[in-house]
Write the structure tokens for this entry.
Amino acid sequence: MTTSVHAVRIHAYGGPEQMRYEPVDVPPPAAGEVQIRQQAVGVNYLDTYHRRGVFPLPALPGALGVEGAGELVAVGEGVHGWAPGDRVSYAARPIGSYATLRNLPAASLLRLPAQVSFEQAAAVTLQGLTAHMLLTKVAPVAAGQTVLVHAAAGGLGSLLCQWAHRLGARVIGTVGSPAKAALARQRGCDEVILYNDEPFTDGVRRLTGGAGVDVVFEGLGGAVFQQSLTVMKPFGHIVNLGQVAEGLPQVALADLGPARSLTVSVPGVFAYIATHPHLAAAADELFGLVASGALAVHVGGRYPLSEARAAHEALRARSTTGSLVLIP
């Protein structure tokens, strides 16, 4: 028997105005699936790429979203180890978390400890696993290194700052306002550059005595990526996390070495999730840090699911701090 619920879907690619809050029917979970009553849904820049068609949905109309947290209400045939009432979180395909109720493969579930709220989980699961990937696999950060984090007051940026600081790195963050600078300092930045007051390249050279940084994490692409290459130490590593501003950067290998010997990575968290041999252990480490307070999760905005369009408009205006969540 199907259940009538609500979801936020698009019928055509474009701006936030394409998003519609509308009724949908959800069937019982199929074999290997579970059904989740969602308590909070994460909003990510990836969702805007899906909405715009940069990364097309499997079909239109289609729901947005890849992250959520809630309680199981039903399990399908062949599902073991999970039962109705279990608290869960996920950051996984298939796309469609902008919904009050949904079915998902049981293999995608992460067990959520009682000490972590649904809102915290929806705000931190995808970005937290991304930070885990970046700092343990892509660009392991060691004590004594200097790390540059662009958009340091954002959801992922603040997690990277905190985590890198815990690892003993010196963390330099870039932000656009004094209020965001204060937040970045609270989240582990040793120094903060206000890029509206001085070019961040000048700020990095000033703070490092011209030596540059070991690692750069940036999600803007374009000019920010290219300029970041100029403030890196020999054998430095720059990691592109997205293309919020100007698209995926083009890099000439001649610009990377051999004299400078730089490394570039463009990692994808879903590849990490799909191939990680112990994903549950990685999630347990992440949620353990959140539960203990070692990683602060900043929910910068809460919106009813029916107002998801407003959340996307806030992202487009780059007026947010921390992570945004939708409440079904």
Q: What stands out?
A: The chain has two domains: 3-125+270-327, 143-266. The two ends are 22 Å apart (CA to CA). The mean pLDDT is 93.
